[in-house]
């Protein structure tokens, strides 16, 4: 792999690691980045790459929140299945959390499996990205103004019901259809509208990403096949490693940031970026 291509891959990994967790759309940024700095790979490989690179970001969530998502162990087991024996190693509260997460995954999973190729062909372009960046940027501003001074009704992951989990999943469905929406952005906006606190909304979004991205990556890998060239393997692994390292930093930053600030800054960023992209398109700077 040439040095220039390696630098491009590192750039893609950095962008993925930053934008996957901030509610500003990783897919949208990857599409825009590819319009400006494209990798010298086949369209089929890039379609797979822009999804599977997210596995690096996911591993960062698993590492940082392992104690909160691993459902086995006797230490700090608040709700063991049984008082003694093997059941004492099972954390039922975490299993319940995973069941609710799976409920949130259903809408996007069904649409993704059935219509993935069609949606990609129809909406994966800078125009859709720009429009959705702006629309959900406005949504963040409206929701934060609406919630200003109000006390969140859901302040713990345990308070998320199956009904609430389903409706959060319906918001995630919007992101599954329209790139530029942001999976994290859609779920956070939906959660805030439904009375969830910022911290819980962010954490739930992180955990929700694990099955969603593993599923999406598996789907792309199956469609592409496992016959990678040496160069393609290097590109994919480099992108994932960079995304993993950057994600560790960004997740820590975001969790600290939202304890003292709201999401308005991300809303304004989305609006400004979307407007710039539309302007570039009008001026003929984007294909």
From TrEMBL:
<keyword id="KW-1003">Cell membrane</keyword>
<feature type="transmembrane region" description="Helical">
    <location>
        <begin position="201"/>
        <end position="222"/>
    </location>
</feature>
<feature type="transmembrane region" description="Helical">
    <location>
        <begin position="267"/>
        <end position="286"/>
    </location>
</feature>
<feature type="transmembrane region" description="Helical">
    <location>
        <begin position="234"/>
        <end position="255"/>
    </location>
</feature>
<protein>
    <recommendedName>
        <fullName>Undecaprenyl-diphosphatase</fullName>
        <ecNumber>3.6.1.27</ecNumber>
    </recommendedName>
</protein>
<keyword id="KW-0573">Peptidoglycan synthesis</keyword>
<feature type="transmembrane region" description="Helical">
    <location>
        <begin position="164"/>
        <end position="181"/>
    </location>
</feature>
<feature type="transmembrane region" description="Helical">
    <location>
        <begin position="97"/>
        <end position="118"/>
    </location>
</feature>
<comment type="function">
    <text>Catalyzes the dephosphorylation of undecaprenyl diphosphate (UPP). Confers resistance to bacitracin.</text>
</comment>
<keyword id="KW-0046">Antibiotic resistance</keyword>
<dbReference type="Pfam" id="PF02673">
    <property type="entry name" value="BacA"/>
</dbReference>
<feature type="transmembrane region" description="Helical">
    <location>
        <begin position="124"/>
        <end position="143"/>
    </location>
</feature>
<keyword id="KW-0133">Cell shape</keyword>
<dbReference type="InterPro" id="IPR003824">
    <property type="entry name" value="UppP"/>
</dbReference>
<keyword id="KW-0472">Membrane</keyword>
<keyword id="KW-0378">Hydrolase</keyword>
<keyword id="KW-0812">Transmembrane</keyword>
<feature type="transmembrane region" description="Helical">
    <location>
        <begin position="7"/>
        <end position="25"/>
    </location>
</feature>
<comment type="similarity">
    <text>Belongs to the UppP family.</text>
</comment>
<feature type="transmembrane region" description="Helical">
    <location>
        <begin position="45"/>
        <end position="66"/>
    </location>
</feature>
<dbReference type="GO" id="GO:0050380">
    <property type="term" value="F:undecaprenyl-diphosphatase activity"/>
</dbReference>
<keyword id="KW-0961">Cell wall biogenesis/degradation</keyword>
<keyword id="KW-1133">Transmembrane helix</keyword>
């Amino acid at each position: 792999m040439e040095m220039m291509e390696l630098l491009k891959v590192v750039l893609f990994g950095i962008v993925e690691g930053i934008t996957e967790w901030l509610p500003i759309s990783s897919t949208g940024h990857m599409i825009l980045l590819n319009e400006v700095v494209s990798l010298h790979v086949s369209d089929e490989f890039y379609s797979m790459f822009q999804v599977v690179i997210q596995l690096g970001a996911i591993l960062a969530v698993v590492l940082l929140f392992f104690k909160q998502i691993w459902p086995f162990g006797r230490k700090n087991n608040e709700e063991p299945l049984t008082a003694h024996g093997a059941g004492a190693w099972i954390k039922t509260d975490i299993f319940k959390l995973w069941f609710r997460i799976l409920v949130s995954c259903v809408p996007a999973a069904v649409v993704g499996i059935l219509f993935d190729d069609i949606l990609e062909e129809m909406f994966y372009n800078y125009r859709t990205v720009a429009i959705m960046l702006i629309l959900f940027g406005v949504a963040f501003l409206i929701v934060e103004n609406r919630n200003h001074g109000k006390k969140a009704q859901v302040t713990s992951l345990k308070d998320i019901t199956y009904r609430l989990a389903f409706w959060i999943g319906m918001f995630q469905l919007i992101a599954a259809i329209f790139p530029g929406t942001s999976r994290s952005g859609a779920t956070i906006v939906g959660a805030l509208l439904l009375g969830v606190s910022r911290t819980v909304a962010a954490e739930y979004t992180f955990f929700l990403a694990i099955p969603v991205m593993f599923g999406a990556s598996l789907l792309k890998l199956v469609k592409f096949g496992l016959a990678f060239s040496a160069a393609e393997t290097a590109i994919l692994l480099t992108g994932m490693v960079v995304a993993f390292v950057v994600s560790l930093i960004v997740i820590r930053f975001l969790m600290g940031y939202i304890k003292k600030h709201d999401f308005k800054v991300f809303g304004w960023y989305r609006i400004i970026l979307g407007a710039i992209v539309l302007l570039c398109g009008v001026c003929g700077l984007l294909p």
